[in-house]
Write a structure and sequence with these properties.
By secondary structure, the chain is α+β, with helices and mostly antiparallel strands. It contains three helices and four strands. A hairpin with a 2-residue loop joins strand 1 and strand 2. This is Integrase DNA-binding domain-containing protein.
Amino acid sequence: MPLNDCQIKDAKPAEKPYKLADGRSLYLLVKPNDGKYWRLDYAIDRKRKTLAIGVYPTISLAKVREAAENARRMIAAGQALQCSQAIGQTLAAAIDIQAASKGFRVRYFNVLIG
């Protein structure tokens, strides 16, 4: 059964890291330091590998599903290394846009107040 946002928010850290499966090898790794990390498992030449997609809540459930689907396509085409670089660049750009908009709001309100 796929994850939903309430399940992710309710996930509490335990003594050992544990996984919350979303399906199709995508999961959320919950660590004892209260970190929640998106991971995608895949295999190339019978060797298991893990792609680190991002950190929750910086990367939302919808964005991680989209990124995982793109990664699966690239892995199927034999582009595993390019896949991790492309996913990282795409998500970094999304984070930069969010950070820039927050920075703009802070500067705008400082001008209004100060």
